[in-house]
Amino acid sequence: MNSSIVWVLLAFAAYMILMIVVGAVYAGKTKNSEDYFLGGRKLNGWVAALSAQASDMSGWLLMGLPGSIYAFGTGQAWIAVGLFIGTVCNWLFIAQRLRRYTIRANNSLTLPSYLENRFHDKKRILLITSSLVFVIFFLVYTASALTAGGKLFTSVFGIDYKLALTIGAAVVLIYTFLGGFMAVCTTDFIQGTLMLIGIMVVPIIAYVLVGDANVTAMLAESGVAGGPSSFLNVMHNDGSRVSAIYIISQLAWGLGYMGMPHILVRFMAVSNEKELKKSKVIAIVWVALSLGFAVVIGIIGRAYLYPTVLGQGDAAGISAENVFIEMIKKIFMEDFQLTFIGGLFLCGILAAIMSTADSQLLVTASSVAEDLFKGVFKKNASDKTVLNVSRATIVVVALIAYIIALNPDSSVMGLVSNAWAGFGAAFGPIVILSLYWKRTNLAGAIAGIVSGAATVIVWDYIPCFHTGVMDEAGKEIMETLGTHTGLYSLAIGFFISLAMIVIFSLTTKAPSEEMLQEYADMKNDNL
To answer: How confident is the model over 141-166, as a mean pLDDT?
Structure first.
């Protein structure tokens, strides 16, 4: 092992040890299930903002998005535009009302329990349905984070993918298992800060090294489809003009925010509305800078890394999703004195991965332990028992996600896309209408969640169109609705769910006077 790798390894080790120490510290401060799942609703503005955004973006921000820009051009930036709009709307229109309503609705600790209390679901249909959707899609989402971690360790240290995957999964599991929500949020704050520094500094240095006058020429030499003018044109993708369906699909990513449990739970946990207002500004600035510089990484990385072209020639084994990793290695690892700094920037990618995986594990655990175990099977369970079940769930979910992530050819972008669509379509519409339409009722809520989740599953996973193309075994390759139409499943699932909520709510019994009073209390801040 050369000395450069040793310094990088020391940076990674120091970072991961810090995360575990944070988990151990908060393990001693966790007294009950509210502490473990919501941190006692004591988050300050800075931690809430950076925790929400760091847990949101994941390895996708530093691998998936820059990689897609690198490979296909700035036409891929429509996703970033959609996500920015979604983030702004989430903080402006959802955060405050959701925090109020979860307190008014019997101090709900999780999104499923909020929906149950909001709609007075005595039969616990919402609780069970929501929890099952959580488990299904969070397994895929967590697997995407672990996959990104495995690719990072493999690229940096040249170790076997499975060993790399095991190391990353183990560290996330340990500190999430120990410290719960506050450990997750505190580590996310550190990770969000590290991510932002890395994502801004690295492309600026690379741009200076390339030189303003050389960027276009080097893009052309690297073989970008359609030439530099097409590569830098947001109305082109992979050398061809984008369609209306393509832009709609990319912008539709923004619809997912209102249904992301690991983001919404941060709104529920903020200490007061004054801190929440502070969080809005911090979060919006953070996400604008992060998404903007992620796009820049893809552009500048294409020029800076040339004559290496990721995925081609000598770099055939390196995915375009590794563009940020390769930029850091080229800038910092060729100079021994800068190696440790490079290791810290690489930790920024690890931070993006961990900040999402830990949140997903915790929200899944809260849903299983608080909502299913205590809410359905053992209503008189003690806090200690609930905590034990939560920690056991974290281990089980991490193990299953680990198994899903074992395939090194899994696309981070693809896995995130499927899970994001599932949550956004299932929960986004009902969260919005539960906060803004008092006529929404239990039947509408159930119809919305089921139809949204089912639409995504059918759209993305059920082959139903003949292609006439045979695979190696002589079996015809079938296309899904998503592949056939090119329309992102979230775009259709969100609006089907929205329509089902309205139709079922209007054609069934109106909400009770008690429910209407709770809605009025939330709206008027009468808690």
So the answer is: 75
**Average pLDDT of the chain to the nearest whole number:** 82
Spell out the long-range contacts of 102-109 with Cβ–Cβ below 8 A and sequence spacing 24 or more.
Answer: 102/268, 103/41, 103/527, 104/518, 104/521, 104/522, 104/527, 105/518, 107/34, 108/268, 109/33, 109/34, 109/37, 109/38, 109/268, 109/366, 109/370
CB 40 within 8 A of CB 184: no
382 neighbors 370 (Cβ within 8 angstroms): no
DSSP string covering 377-421: I-TT--HHHHHHHHHHHHHHHHHHHHHHTT-TT--HHHHHHHHHH
Helix (H, G, I), strand (E, B) or coil at 156: helix
Q: What is the pLDDT of residue 63?
A: 79
Cis peptide before 307 (omega within 30 of 0): yes
- Residues 314 and 387: their CA atoms lie apart, in Å, by 50
pLDDT by residue (tens digit) across 268-302?
878 788 888 888 999 999 999 999 999 999 999 99
Mean pLDDT of all residues in 248-258: 92
CA–CA distance, 365 with 321 (Å, rounded to integer): 30
Whole-angstrom Cα distance, residue 13 to residue 34?
A: 31
The whole-number pLDDT of residue 203 equals 93
Tens of pLDDT, residues 412-425? 556 677 778 888 99
pLDDT the model gives residue 29: 62
* Alpha helix (H) residue ranges in 256-382: 261-269, 273-304, 323-332, 339-366
Q: Which two tokens stand for residue 120?
A: 């007075």
The phi-psi region of residue 238 (left if phi > 0; otherwise alpha if psi is between -120 and 50; otherwise beta) is left
pTM over 0.70: yes
Largest pairwise CA distance in the chain: 71
Interatomic CA distance for residues 527 and 525, integer angstroms? 6
Task: Sort residue 525 into left (φ over 0), alpha (ψ -120 to 50) or beta.
Answer: left
Contact partners, residue 222, CB within 8 Å, separation at least 6 = 302, 303, 306, 307, 309
